[in-house]
Specification:
By secondary structure, the chain is an alpha/beta fold. The protein has a single domain, classed as Rossmann fold. Strands 6-7-8-3-9-10 form a six-stranded mixed beta sheet. Strands 2-1-4-5 form a four-stranded antiparallel beta sheet, covered by helices on one side.
């Protein structure tokens, strides 16, 4: 599903060159569940951004599901993201004035030009929120908001779900419930799941843990 080879990401901070990623090579198989861990500033979020086609590497190759994406333009990367990748973020990133159903349907507007109510309803049902379709984010608990975010990631039927600290804003009990949900969705749908976490207990849910240190796989 994913094959990156000798990826670097270099930032110029005045006269100082910062190598956020320094020669990372990695393969992730179709249907695998992988956790990426590492301390703050290690490069794990930069790696996640490149894997999610939110950023391009300075050098190296990245083949995603048979497509060479390393040198794509921003508009081309946006198309790949919309067709192949679902995102779940720590901050949920829900629109505050719209219902759960409308939040979940939003990616379909970009993908097809239509709000497809049936698909959004089915996605919310898959995360156990059939009775919260009309609720706005401020009417939902943190765990329920994250479930809405997961449903939004799934509604376009992506082959990959990328989650950046998906339990970071949740209490431990709710965090465990969210990880159980990820496990169920992974086993039922066979989606490739990649998530960033600083919590070893959360990382232990994955089939494989990749530890990043100083821009390299440790």
């Amino acid at each position: 599903m994913i094959e990156i080879e000798n990826i670097t990401k270099v930032y110029q901070m005045g006269e100082t060159e910062v190598r956020a990623l320094d020669g990372v090579s990695l393969k992730i198989e179709d249907g695998e569940w992988v956790a990426i861990t590492g301390p703050s500033g290690s490069g794990k979020s930069t790696l996640m951004a490149i894997l999610g086609c939110l950023d391009s590497p300075t050098s190296g190759s990245y083949v995603l599901d048979g497509i060479d994406v390393a040198k794509m333009r921003d508009d081309q990367l946006a198309s790949v993201r919309n067709k192949k990748i679902g995102f779940v973020f720590q901050q949920f990133n829900l629109l505050s004035r719209t219902s759960a159903l409308e939040n979940v349907a939003l990616p379909l507007l970009y993908a097809t030009g239509n709000h497809t109510r049936d698909r959004a309803t089915a996605a919310l049902a898959a995360v156990g929120l059939s009775d919260r379709l009309g609720h706005r984010p401020n009417e939902l608990s943190g765990g329920q908001q994250q479930r809405v975010a997961i449903a939004r990631a799934l509604v376009t039927e992506p082959s990959i779900v990328l989650a950046d600290e998906p339990t970071g804003n949740l209490d431990s009990k709710t965090g465990k419930e969210i990880m159980t949900l990820f496990s169920e969705l992974h086993s039922q749908r066979g989606i490739t799941v990649i998530f960033v976490t600083h919590d070893p207990a959360i990382a232990a849910n994955a089939q494989r843990v990749i530890h990043i240190q100083d821009g390299q796989i440790a």
